[in-house]
Every structure is written in structure tokens, then in C-alpha cells.
Specification:
single chain, 18 helices, 71% helix, 1% strand
């Protein structure tokens, strides 16, 4: 019986391309002077492009390889494609910024690629130990990137906090896998018997798995690391982390919950409480922040709550809404951080809310784009964030989650306050900082402009994208199995309706 064959490698080709590109970046970096690292940006983007080509090549074939542990189904491919967008935008935003910060090392781009490959593995994994491997690849690279500004005390503090808390949560996740194995006799999601998920080992294991994944997704009460790490890490790293880690965590969370939620109504209630607490805490505490990066950190927590509502809905509309919102969140959140990157000067960053006062008078283009991102994060049309929230809450209503929908809408109203506060200060308050001319950063400027354009265009042309999300999932009735003995997946989502 063959464990792997040629087709099996097609399931790992997308994230393997990023790993090879990362190693190539490390090798090329040995021959480049420190002030000429721009070629590493293009090598990284080539790796992203090759990975995207593999995703397009695997589309519709629904491969399951390596004895059923890795899937190249449409669920995995869509999440991986969103992760590639996050990676490409993060690389573009980083090029000028890390030069100004004096951290222009080749390892930076390699770590971005390695971290993204870990998140992509989480999306493709159908086995808990393999999910843990992906989680660690994602996390270890982010620990290092958080402290990449080694001369800044705040960056080092962020890295230590993230590492200690992250290692602790990984321990919970791994111990949860052990208990699941003890209770069910397997760690393969498609082979877990539902009738064995109610014993003591399995219940404790599921709880510990949720702790590990909720930490990475910044879900309350496992969110305490988020504001400090977002504020202390280099802004380009924070931009990547805010979307990349969340997409990877939610891809794994969906796969896990699809198996475990039907086992008991208790888990449905637990996720309900987590979603409600995350939306409320994220929005309420964000109002009190005076630092834009900390405000966006709590905003990120709130958005994790919105996404969790769609996950809990569990219907076709909810699953499509989660993917669409992930895509929209990528552009609007990285765009907001991109504005902070464009405003940064050598040796100084303008991250305070007061720093942005009067920005429209000196740099109207930056102020307009920042306003687009704030409107979208707040859920105000004609920005795509409105459509994303509308889809999530509509799916929740279809699933009869009326109380959670009302809490989400009220929390969103609170969020409107601090998002619009930024807009008001940029356009209606006198300037307190002299930004001077913006630094010449063509790649970062292109990335921010692209984020602003897509954030608006997705509002008007969302139907084709949503159609892909709905039609992208194929029935599990006749998948192309790379290993003849691999069991059919039962945990994969179906959006063909």
C-alpha cells in the first residue's frame, strides 16, 4: 500500500513553493550588500506567484494526499489564495519600511514566506498533528519577526510576550491532541467517530484545542497578547500578522469545529459566548485607545468575533461570508497599516491618533485612502466591509442566532465611533505634526492604493467573488483521492448549494 505518489505532492505544492522561495531568499542574501536587498522582494513575489499557479492548477480536482492527512480541496485552496494575497501585500509594504528601520536583512522576507507556508499548511491539514506542525511554523517565524527591530526595547518586549504566551497556548493545543487521541483512537479528522466525542478525554481535548486556536485568532479571553505585540512589533510585521495569523487560525478552526460542533450542543454554546465576548470587548476597549496600532489591535479582536459568528452559523451563507470577509479584511486592514508605513520617517513613526490630525491638509491622498479603510472596518457603504458584515449577520439570522446578531450589531455601532474619530481628526482638526513629503516608496504606495481600490470595488462587484466562494466547493461524493486507501473527508465544507 503506497503512502504517497506523484499526485500527493500536488496537495503540498502551494506551500512547498513558498518554503523553497524562502530558502532561495536566504541563499541569495549571502551575496547581496545590505543596501541592495530589493531583489529579495521580487524573488519573494516570484515564490508567491508560483504558489498561486499551483493553486490554480489544483482547482476543482479535490486531491487528498498522504493517506488523507492533506487536502487540496476548494476550502484549502481558497484560504491559501487569501494567504498569498496577504503575503504579497506584506512584502510590498515592507521594502522601504525595513530600510528606514535599519532592519533590512534577507531573513525578514524568508520568515514572512515561512510563516505564510505554515498558515497554508493549517488550511490544508486534515490531521491534528499536522495542523500543530503548521501552527508552529506560522508562530515561530512570527515570534522572530515581532522582535526583528532588535535595537528597540518595545519590539523585544513584544517578541518575548508573544513567545511565552504562544508557547503556552501551543502546549494546550498539543495536549488537546493527545487527549483526543486517547478518547477516539485517531487524530485524523475524517476518521474521528462522533459517538466517541462525548467521553471525558475527548471533551477535555476539544476544550484545549479551542484554547490553542482561539489564542492564534485573538479571540477573547485569549487575546491579551494582541495589543502589546501589535504595538511593539515593526508595523510591516504587524500588518502581516493581523491578517495572516487570523486567516490560518480560522481555516484550522473551521475544519476542527465542523467535526466537533455536531458532537454536543455545549460546544455551540461555548462558541456563542466566545463570539459575543470577542465582539463586545474588542470594540469597547478600542474606544479607549490613543495609539492607532493598539486601536487596530482591538479592532482585529472585534473582527475575529464577527468572523466567529459566520463560523457558528454553519450554513452555506455563513461559510461563504467567512471567506468573503477574510478577503475584505485582508485589504482594508493591511491598507490601514500601510498608511502608517507611508507616514513613517527614518527613526520616527506617527502611530498616535493625535499624529494623524490635519493629515488631509498636507497629504489628502493618504487621508482619503485611510478614510476608505476606516469606513470599511466600520461597515459603512460604499466600502466592502459593509457587505461582509451584512453577509455574516444575514447568515446568523438564517441560523436563528438572533441574540448573537443583535449583540454584533450593537458592538458594530460602538466600533463606528472610534473609526470615524480617525476620519474626523484627519479632516477637521488642526495638524500637530509636520510630516513633510512622504518618503519615496513606490512598492508600498502601490500596495496601499491597490488595497483602497479593491476595498471599494469589492462592494460593487462582489457577486463574481461570492460566486467563486459558493461554487468553489465540490461534493465529497467523488473526490480525486491521491492515495487509494485514504478515507473520504467528512469535515470539509460544502458550498455547492
Amino acid at each position: 500500500m503506497t503512502f504517497i505518489n506523484t499526485d500527493s505532492y500536488l496537495t503540498i505544492a502551494p506551500f512547498l513553493a513558498l518554503v523553497i522561495a524562502g530558502m532561495g531568499v536566504l541563499m541569495l542574501d549571502l551575496f547581496l550588500p545590505r543596501d541592495r536587498k530589493s531583489s529579495l522582494v521580487f524573488l519573494s513575489l516570484i515564490g508567491v506567484a508560483v504558489s498561486a499557479a499551483f493553486i490554480l492548477g489544483d482547482w476543482g480536482k479535490n486531491y487528498i494526499g498522504f493517506a488523507g492527512t492533506v487536502a487540496a480541496d476548494q476550502f484549502a485552496l481558497l484560504f491559501q489564495f487569501v494567504l498569498l494575497i496577504v503575503t504579497a501585500l506584506a512584502v510590498l509594504l515592507s521594502e522601504r519600511y525595513i530600510q528606514q528601520k535599519g532592519i533590512n536583512h534577507g531573513e525578514y522576507y524568508a520568515l514572512i514566506l515561512f510563516s505564510a507556508s505554515g498558515a497554508m499548511l493549517m488550511a490544508a491539514s486534515k490531521e491534528l498533528l499536522l495542523t500543530f506542525v503548521g501552527l508552529e511554523i506560522l508562530s515561530i517565524a512570527l515570534y522572530i519577526l515581532s522582535g526583528f527591530a532588535r535595537t528597540e526595547e518595545r519590539s523585544e518586549e513584544a517578541a518575548i510576550k508573544y513567545f511565552l504566551l504562544g508557547a503556552f497556548s501551543s502546549g494546550f493545543f498539543l495536549y488537546g491532541i493527545a487527549l483526543i487521541y486517547g478518547g477516539t483512537g485517531t487524530t485524523l479528522l475524517s476518521a474521528i467517530p462522533v459517538d466517541k466525542l462525548s467521553n471525558g478525554y475527548s471533551v477535555a481535548g476539544i476544550a484545549l484545542l479551542l484554547v490553542g486556536l482561539c489564542f492564534k485568532a485573538a479571540i477573547v479571553p485569549f487575546h491579551s497578547w494582541t495589543p502589546d505585540v501589535y504595538q511593539g512589533a515593526p508595523t510591516s510585521v504587524t500588518a502581516f500578522m493581523s491578517a495572516g495569523a487570523k486567516v490560518g487560525a480560522f481555516s484550522a478552526l473551521i475544519r476542527v469545529l465542523t467535526v466537533f460542533l455536531p458532537a454536543s450542543l455545549v460546544w455551540h454554546d461555548v462558541i456563542w459566548v466566545l463570539a459575543a465576548a470577542t465582539m463586545i470587548v474588542g470594540n469597547v476597549v478600542a474606544v479607549l485607545q490613543t495609539d492607532v496600532k493598539r486601536m487596530l489591535a482591538y479592532s482585529s479582536i472585534a473582527h475575529a468575533g464577527y468572523i466567529l459568528v459566520g463560523v457558528l452559523a454553519g450554513n452555506t451563507a455563513g461559510q461563504a461570508a467567512v471567506l468573503f470577509y477574510m478577503l475584505v479584511y485582508t485589504f482594508m486592514n493591511l491598507g490601514a497599516f500601510g498608511i502608517l508605513i507611508l507616514l513613517a520617517k527614518t527613526g520616527k513613526e506617527f502611530n498616535s491618533v493625535r499624529d494623524l490630525q490635519g493629515l488631509a491638509k498636507t497629504h489628502p491622498g493618504a487621508a482619503i485612502m485611510m478614510s476608505i479603510f476606516m469606513f470599511s472596518l466600520a461597515g459603512i457603504p460604499p466600502a466592502a466591509g459593509f457587505l461582509g458584515k451584512f453577509m455574516l449577520f444575514s447568515a446568523a439570522i438564517q441560523a436563528h442566532l438572533y441574540g448573537l446578531t443583535v449583540l454584533g450589531l450593537l458592538a458594530s455601532v460602538v466600533g463606528v465611533f472610534y473609526y470615524l474619530m480617525i476620519v474626523v481628526r484627519m479632516f477637521m482638526s488642526p495638524a500637530e505634526r509636520d510630516f513633510g513629503p512622504l518618503a519615496r516608496a513606490p512598492l508600498a504606495s502601490f500596495a496601499v492604493a491597490l488595497c483602497a481600490a479593491v476595498t471599494v470595488l469589492l462592494f460593487f462587484f462582489a457577486n463574481p467573488v461570492i460566486g467563486v466562494f459558493k461554487q468553489g466547493y465540490v461534493s465529497q461524493s467523488s473526490p480525486t483521492i491521491a492515495v487509494a486507501s485514504a478515507p473520504k473527508a467528512v469535515a470539509t465544507l460544502d458550498l455547492t448549494q
